[in-house]
Amino acid sequence: MSLELLIQNALLVFLFVLCLIAIELKDLLYSVIVLAGASVSLSVIFYMLQAPDIAITQAAVGAGVMTVLFVIAISRTRRKE
Amino acid sequence: MAGMTVIVRTIARLLFPFTFLFGVYIVLHGHLTPGGGFPGGVIIASSVIMLLLAYGIERTQKRVGFLQAEVLESVGGLAIAVLGLFGLLLGIAFLQNVFPLGELGQLFSAGNLPLLYLGVGIKVTAGIILIFYAMLFAFRGEEK
Predict the structure, then answer these.
(1) What is the domain extent for residue A24?
(2) Which of B22, B49, B115, B140 sits at 20 to 30 Å (Cα–Cα) from B101?
(3) pTM for this prediction
């Protein structure tokens, strides 16, 4: 198994674990921050799969705009699940 | 949104021009490098949203007003439609290129593609800022 494939599989496992943590956390603000980390991991995977265009979009939308949108929504509702 | 501490405000104020410039770069080099209208527009909008988080809605609205963003979104949509109809009037198909192509790899090349990306970038920027303004305005009445 080459090094690139190894890193890619490790990133996929990392993404899966982060998504599971985001589901299981009871504090929604922490959950949103973990989801932003998962989005960054997914954007690195996209970059390694020769799709830099999608990687830029995923990083900007997933880690930037979506996080702030969720934070504003949480600030208007309850923080605990 | 009431705004945050002085650390967050200073970082947001220092980081705002660089984020804005990077978004403009992504939009203008849309036909040469990865990126284009949508990612660049989202990056420009996220620079304004960073100010919105740090300083609160009142001070951000002095810089980018609600009506200003609404007009900009309409201008972007109008630019895309006019560019498409321009090709339809002079050429054969919608959005067909009628401008000189230029040299490969230069900034001013690729016909009407940079203009199209500029329109898409303006529309996406104003649209995402408007989404956040609409969310903040929609909940503002319930607090009072």
Answers:
(1) 3-76
(2) B22
(3) 0.84
